Amino acid sequence: MPIVVKDDQAIKKIAIAGNIIFNIFSAINKMNLSSMRTIDLNDRIDKMIRAHEAIPAFLNYRGFPKSCCVSLNDEVVHGIPNNRRIKNGDLVKIDVGVNYGGYIADAARTFAVGDISDEAQKLLTVTKQALKKGIEMAKKGYRISDISRSVQTAVEDNGFSVVRELTGHGVGKDLHEEPVIPNFVGSGIDAVIQPGMVLAIEPMVNIGGYEVVTAENNWTILSKDGSLSCHYEDTIAILEKGNINLTRVAES
Questions:
Q1: Separation of alpha carbons 10 and 5, rounded Å
Q2: φ and ψ at residue 174, rounded to 5 degrees
Q3: pLDDT given for residue 186 in this prediction
Q4: Angle at the Cα of 33 (from 29 to 36), degrees rounded to 5?
Q5: Residue 219: exposed, middle, or buried by beta-carbon count in 10 A (0-12, 13-18, 19+)?
Q6: Whole-angstrom Cα distance, residue 18 to residue 181?
Q7: What span, in angstroms and rounded, lies between the C-alpha atoms of 1 and 181?
Q8: Terminal CA-to-CA distance of the chain, rounded, Å?
Q9: Measuring CA to CA, which residue among 62, 61, 17, 72 is closest to residue 39?
Q10: Taken in order 171, 64, 204, 54, is the CA torsion positive or negative?
Q11: Residue 206 gets which letter from DSSP?
Q12: pLDDT digit string, tens, across residues 168-205
């Protein structure tokens, strides 16, 4: 499929969707997540999305049954909200997509609940820094591999590993569009970055190895060795000069 370049009106709608996500994560930052059920967190997020006259982009996407993904500890992504309760010491990854006026923004954050280990804190710091480094390479005339290399280097220089079976992606009218944005340098198509492209850049980082497995629910992806995993994601619009972060974690 070709890469879809967005016009100003499309980017404005994606920016509104991105701002809704930003506000949702700002609200979650003020919540006490300890002992909360993940389904209750899902329901609050669903309510906040709809209060802005928007639609949860994940709900029923390829059969996904909930409005957001909530993944705990060794779960990398695609955790299905349910009756599990969040505990002190958990790493909680929350991935949210919002469809506003037919255009989608996508972002993820990792929240530390209560007391976590020094290594877990380093994992959060490194993953967020990797996202920032990747965004710095998302500029006109650069290549997708420049993003990938920057993320991979930031992670591996700190002794962690980037998940290889899952990638970032273009985003717009569809949740997953071209180009594919790996978090490591591979041998795939290496598109030139152009103004009007909208990219969801999302390092997924494990303390241990990069191998992953799929849970019995056929959705949740876990680190194969059971090590902690971290996930940050932002939606970025490419401009003639630089880019603009539409969901804004890397600038906070």
A1: 9
A2: -110, 150
A3: 85
A4: 145
A5: middle
A6: 19
A7: 14
A8: 34
A9: 72
A10: positive
A11: E
A12: 999 999 999 999 999 999 877 899 999 999 999 999 99
Identify the CATH homologous superfamily for domain 8-245.
Answer: Creatinase/methionine aminopeptidase superfamily (3.90.230.10)
Q: What is the pLDDT of residues 45-61, one digit of tens each?
A: 999 999 999 999 999 99
Per-residue tokens: 246: 């539409």
Q: Is residue 34 a contact partner of residue 91, using CB atoms and an 8 Å limit?
A: no
The backbone torsions φ and ψ at residue 200, rounded to the nearest 5 degrees and listed phi first, read: -100, 105
The H-or-E segment that residue 25 falls in is: helix 8-29
The DSSP bridge pattern shows strands 229-231 and 204-206 to be antiparallel
Give the pLDDT of residue 234.
98
Separation CA 222–CA 91 (nearest Å) = 13
Dihedral angle at the C-alpha atoms of 10, 16, 22, 25, nearest 10 degrees?
A: -110
Q: How far is CA 81 from the centre of its chain?
A: 17
Q: Is 249 helix (H, G, I), strand (E, B) or coil?
A: coil
Question: Exposure of 38 by Cβ count < 10 A (0-12 exposed, 13-18 middle, 19+ buried)?
Answer: buried
Model confidence, pTM: 0.96
Residue 231's nearest CA partner among 246, 214, 213, 249 is 249
Q: How far apart are CA 210 and CA 105, in angstroms?
A: 26
User: Which pLDDT does position 251 carry in this prediction?
Assistant: 53
Rounded Cα gap, residues 86 and 41, in angstroms: 10
Do 200 and 214 meet the contact criterion of CB atoms below 8 Å apart? no
Q: Which amino acid makes up residue 68?
A: C
Which residue in this structure is represented by tokens 């879809």?
Answer: 4
Q: Can you tell me the distance from the alpha carbon of 166 to that of 204, in angstroms, rounded to the nearest whole number?
A: 8
CA angle 155, 244, 172 (to 5 degrees): 90
